[in-house]
Amino acid sequence: MSTINILGSTGSIGTQALQLVRLHPDRFTVKALTAHSNAQLLFQQVREFRPEMAGLTKPIPMEDIPADLRFCRWVMGKEALRVAAAEVPADQVLVSVVGIAGLQSVMDALNAGRQVLLANKEALVTGGHLVMDAARRIGKPLLPVDSEHSAIFQCLQGAADNQPVKLLLTASGGPFRTWDKERMARATRAEALNHPNWSMGAKITIDSASMFNKALEIIEARWLFDMPPEKIQVVVHPQSIIHSAIEFADGAVIAQLGVPDMRVPIQYAMTYPERLPTGSKPLDLFALGQMTFEPGDPVRFPALRLAVECLNAGGAACTVLNGANEAAVAAFLREEIPFGAISTLVEGAVEKLCHLPANNLDDIFAADAAARAAVAELLPALR
Ligand code: NDP
Ligand code: MG
């Protein structure tokens, strides 16, 4: 039996993690749940899973909490994340909030000695060196939930002491894989939210359309697997069956395959190193017939180029890329800017701010704020 705290329990990853808890009631007990704005869903989850603690980062009055849910300790505001990450004892902390909000939670959980299951890629993108140092200090590896990084982590289980010479990071290519730059620049919100293979939260779905998701994942892989960017190759694979692969010195390539279903990597992190049923459909290679591969195009998708430039720049450049992208995606989702403006805004912010330092969390939060301010300043010209 493992105890688990879930930060971001109302999201795409959080709700799937709870489905897995429901599937294996003898294996998991939920101790803490946090949500941001979806109080109604959180109430249902608290009613079903009966955690010790629950909280909403967007506070509501305590009197709005239904009488039958007062058995649990309620915490409002950012404090909810800290309590769920570091105070309520649990074997595992799943950080599945979206955005840089995850960084402090990951650090809090690690500093409290907790095993972190990491869905929130923004924590590594913005504070990779601090997060990896903290994980090393407590001697517990971060267990990746992101499907590509879980795939690489799974492939590494058979590697003994052999270091891969290359990571092959697969990408579906998103809804605009075959679109030309001009058509993409005018894409609508509905078109960008229409992902061909995966059903995910709105932010990561837009990132998949712009390939900023892959940019963030290059940075995530750099930290998780200590790989320089030139040894991380993006492979566009529209069927999303190979979830990523690693190449060894002898030329052997080991890949992890399966139907696109996040329950597999979420549960692998929850039960590592054991494997249990997830409810996922088995892979039918005959029904699939064929798999195809193409290179990522940094001209139509500048995110791929920017990720490498920011990694090479060091300091807070990746934090700036992430903060500017979060602000630009939010503006696109509010339908204030065209799709093509997202990468223009991120590039503008990176050019202006890529020299900022990232020596500690305060530096990182300052760089994030500066990136958002730069986007706000550049945005009116791009409406
Ligand atoms: P969702 O948008 O579906 O869910 C996000 C969760 O975080 C919700 O519970 C939401 O609460 C909460 N939340 C939103 N804003 C804040 C905030 N400012 N502070 C604290 N909590 C907040 O996202 P996903 O589940 O899709 O993604 C979560 C993370 O996992 C992201 O970092 C993403 O990149 C990563 N990931 C997701 C994958 C997927 O398949 N979805 C795949 C790989 C990685 P509420 O809904 O109550 O407002
Ligand atoms: Mg991914």
Brief account:
The protein is α/β, with parallel strands linked by helices and 383 residues long. It contains 16 helices and twelve strands.
Give Rg in angstroms: 20 Å
Helix/strand class = alpha/beta
The ligands bound in this entry are: NADPH dihydro-nicotinamide-adenine-dinucleotide phosphate, magnesium ion
Q: Which band does the percent of strand residues land in?
A: 5-15%
What is the terminal-to-terminal distance? 53 Å
Adjacency order of strands in the biggest sheet: 4-3-2-1-5-6-7
> What is the subunit organization of this protein?
single chain
H/E topology pattern: EHEHEEHEHEHEHEHHHHEEEHHEHHHH
- The total strand number stands at 12
Largest sheet: 7 strands, parallel
Shape: globular
- Tally the helices: what do you get? 16
Number of domains: 3
Quick check: average pLDDT? 97
- List low-pLDDT spans: none
Folded structure, characterized:
With 383 residues, this protein is an alpha/beta fold. It has three domains: 2-141, NAD(P)-binding Rossmann-like Domain (Rossmann fold); 147-298, no CATH class; 314-383, RNA polymerase sigma factor, region 2, helix turn helix motif (Rna Polymerase Sigma Factor, Chain: A). The chain has 16 helices and twelve strands. Strands 4-3-2-1-5-6-7 form a seven-stranded parallel beta sheet, sandwiched between helices. A five-stranded mixed beta sheet has the order 11-10-8-9-12, with helices on one face. Helix 5 links the parallel strand 6 and strand 7 (143-144). The chain has helices at 12-23, 39-49, 79-87, 101-111, 122-138, 147-156, 181-185, 189-192, 202-210, 212-224, 263-271, 285-288, 302-313, 317-333, 341-353, 361-378, and strands at residues 2-7, 28-35, 53-56, 73-76, 92-95, 115-118, 143-144, 166-171, 232-236, 242-247, 253-257, 294-295. Magnesium ion (MG) binds next to helix 6.
